[in-house]
Amino acid sequence: MTETIPMRSWLFAPGDSERKMLKCAESDADIALFDLEDAVTVDRKPDARSMVRDLLHSRDSGRERLWVRINPVDGPFAVDDLAAVMPGRPGGIMLPKSRGRRDVELLDHYLTALEAANGIAQGSTKVIALVTEAAEAMFTTGDYAGAPRLAAMTWGAEDLADALGASNNRDASGDYDFTYRLARSLCLIGAASAGVLPIETIHGDFRDIDGLRARADMVRAQGYRGMLAIHPAQVAVINEAFTPSEKEIAAAQEIVDLFAANPGVGAIGYKGGMLDRPYLARAETVLRLAGRS
After folding, report:
1. Residue 82 CB: number of other CB atoms within 10 A?
2. What's residue 292's pLDDT?
């Protein structure tokens, strides 16, 4: 997909805290995510909806980077969430606990009606789907190709553990256990199949900056293009990790130039080895991520 704005870092803020939402909106995060779901208790949801709507209305520009996480579409709160926040013209909606393509399509119906009611360009409100939080959703991660409005897919380990009745989602080394690593892989493969951005889940310990950096570097090498954040201190690390370095850019440009100088060649000698077309595709991806395609 073609990004209209960067989508490396996605920073959450609870929708019932004006202070935290303002800090989130004014941070360097590419996407500021105002949360109406897990971060807000049931009794606080009406107040949170009003607070999110008011904050959106207060911004004269930059709303394309202000997104809202609503409640699941199969629950009792999602329609009220959308009716409250859509007059504020958010840039996008995060859909939690998506069970598959049908949930994105249902959300699209709601958004289409609300865009029409609020004078918003049809289809302009984008969607990121959390695709592994329900047990059944693990079987539908490959079904999202062509889903309306879908810009990105991400995954979650904590809600999945709850859905599975697990007491822990970590192995003895502290890494995610196999089932949750599988969820990460299925999200990545599903996003590639759908042609949307794969976004890594949160790093829960916001004080563990070294661990965050190592994980962000790891998943970017695997193909992820951004990461969720729960604290402003994580944003700079995430932005750096998902931005190609000058060394990477120079190496990629060298490969692209080499193939450009030898059109029609499937494989070409390079520094004592051979490069074929997949190396060219990877180099082009680096330049695209750097905005130099």
Report:
1. 23
2. 67
Q: Can you name the residues that pair with 270 across neighbouring β-strands?
A: 273
Dist. CA 15–CA 153, nearest whole Å: 22
Could you report the per-residue pLDDT of 139-155, keeping only the tens digit for each? 999 999 999 999 999 99
Give start-end residues of each CATH 3.20.20.60 domain in the chain: 9-243
Whether 184 has a binding-site annotation, put simply, is: no
How many C-beta neighbours within 10 Å does residue 248 have? 15
For residues 245-270, average pLDDT: 84
- Residue 208 marked ligand-binding: no
Q: State how far the alpha carbon of 187 is from the alpha carbons of 164, 228, 241, 254, in Å.
A: 18, 14, 19, 32
To the question of whether residue 133 is assigned a binding role by annotation, the answer is yes
pLDDT-derived band at 2 (thresholds 50, 70, 90) equals: very low
Residue 3: HSE in the Cβ half-sphere, 13 Å Cα cutoff: 18
The answer to whether residues 266 and 277 touch, using CB atoms and an 8 Å cutoff, is: yes
Cα 62 to Cα 94: distance, rounded to the nearest angstrom: 17
Spell out the CATH class of 9-243.
Answer: alpha beta
SS3 236: helix
Q: Which H or E run contains 10?
A: strand 9-14
Instruction: Tell me the pLDDT tens digit for each residue of 167-207.
Output: 999 999 989 999 999 999 999 999 999 999 999 999 999 99
Percent of the chain with pLDDT over 90: 80
Q: Which residue has the higher pLDDT, 287 or 166?
A: 166
Nearest to 144 by CA among 193, 186, 204, 91: 193
Q: What is the pLDDT of residue 162?
A: 96
Instruction: From 11, 36, 6, select the one nearest 22 (Cα to Cα).
Output: 11
DSSP state letter for 144 = -
